[in-house]
Amino acid sequence: MKIEPDVNYADLYAKQVSKNPKAFPSSIKKAVKRYKKWKKRDDIWWDNLKANEALDFMQTFVRHVNGELAGQLLELELWQMFGFAQLYGWQHLNAKGDECRVISEVYWQVPKKNGKT
């Protein structure tokens, strides 16, 4: 999927989860709830351009290294886009007044057979 600059992929996934909450685990529902709550805050903001630049970089330059897909470009699924967009999209001003990411570390635990390959 080509990353379109004007599309907010985090919003797309959040809407998908909100439409059918029974299909998603509580951890995903909590992440979407936090995303929606953060969108209302004044001290941080969502930079869709930065989020999409990161997604585009991954799909343009990152390749699979093992298995059947070795050598092929990575194609992110929507749930993966949501996670990476969270990491790069949320911005705030640090103590020096410079714009920087709100989230600087991520831990993902993904169950088997969930599109990790």
Beta-strand content bin: 5-15%
Distance between the termini: 16 Å
Topology pattern, helix = H, strand = E: HHEHHEE
Give the strand line-up of the largest sheet. 1-2-3
Mean pLDDT: 95
Keywords:
4 helices, 117 residues, 3 strands, globular
Task: Give the arrangement of secondary structure elements.
Blueprint (H helix, E strand, L loop, with lengths): L8 H11 L6 H13 L6 E2 L1 H14 L16 H12 E4 L5 E3 L16
Antiparallel strand pairs: 1-2, 2-3
Helix pairs in contact: 1-2, 1-4, 3-4
Structure description:
- It comes from Enterobacter agglomerans (Erwinia herbicola).
- This is Terminase large subunit.
- InterPro entries: Terminase_largesu-like.
- There is one protein chain.
- The protein is mainly α.
- It has one domain.
- Helices cover 43% and strands 8% of the residues.
- It has helices at residues 9-19, 26-38, 48-61, 78-89, and strands at residues 45-46, 90-93, 99-101.
- Strands 1-2-3 form a 3-stranded antiparallel sheet.
- Strand 2 (90-93) and strand 3 form a beta hairpin.
- The protein is globular, with a radius of gyration of 15 Å.
